[in-house]
């Protein structure tokens, strides 16, 4: 359990350190590193709270942890990171969500499609046009011309 807490804290510390290099504030307002810095701080704070809880009342060894699910999630995140620049955020995230909703979660087609579309296309437009944060688009000219 302590290894998990340490890993959680290490990821948070890494995000904190690298976000400072992006710049937390500009003359126009919040810089590109402010949001990642806040998320890194939240991760570190959550790791501290988790550690305190674990020291006060140690948790039992988790039974029934589906290691296959954990491996599937980690591997699919690695695949998503690898293909994101090639397929773009919308298509890559749509496929990622469909894999987890339909194949791994055995959800119905309508709810899987609606959730995957909202999570991929909706998030893309929310970030690109609502927050002015560019997410990757497809490297394939055909997909790029249709807005992916």
TrEMBL record:
Q: Which residues form the DUF1468 domain?
A: 7-136
Give the InterPro entries listed for this entry.
DUF1468 (IPR009936)
- Lineage: superkingdom: Bacteria
The alphabetized UniProt keywords are: Membrane, Transmembrane, Transmembrane helix
Membrane spanning residue stretches = 33-52, 73-97, 109-127
Name of the protein in its database record: Putative membrane protein
